[in-house]
Amino acid sequence: MQTVENALAKLNRSKFRSSFKLNQKDIEYIREKGMDTIRKHAEDFVRRNLSAAIIANDGKQTPYRGHPVFKAQHATATCCRGCLNKWYKVPLGTELTEVQQQKIVGLIMAWISEQMNDVV
Ligand SMILES: [Zn+2]
Predict the structure, then answer these.
(1) Which residues have their alpha-adjacent CB atom under 5 A from ion ligand 1?
(2) CB within 8 A of 52, min separation 6: which ones?
(3) Which of 43, 57, 92, 112 is the most buried (most CB within 10 A)?
């Protein structure tokens, strides 16, 4: 994986990826829960929905609504193993390591922080 800054810059140049924005409801939810809790949610989603070697519904496991982290995943191309492979060359067919999972969570949280800073 590239640096978080490079990844965010590249994502910003994608019309599709940069179309995702946090709305007022997302922002209120994040403020209410706090960033530490949101990070725990992100860790949970990444472990549950992305970490297995084989994912039967890959490409469909991340909803478009329901949680700001889902939106962040679409914005950062960490929504499925197909996108992780295409954008970050994360190999398919292998379980994600703890380090890979932390990098993905780091990118998700960086995107969320950037969005939160934009609104103030
Ligand atoms: Zn995807």
Answers:
(1) 79-80, 83
(2) 95
(3) 112
Report pLDDT digits (tens) over 78-108.
999 999 999 999 999 999 999 999 999 999 9
Ligand 1 centroid–CA 80 distance in Å is 4
In this prediction the pTM is 0.95
Q: Report d(CA 31, CA 67) in Å as an integer.
A: 13
Give the Å distances, CA to CA, from 97 to 3, 20, 67, 70: 18, 27, 24, 21
pLDDT of residue 61: 97
**Exposed (0-12), middle (13-18) or buried (19+): which is 43, by Cβ within 10 Å?**
middle
CA dist., res. 109 & res. 68, Å (int): 10
C-alpha 32 – ligand 1 centre gap (Å): 28
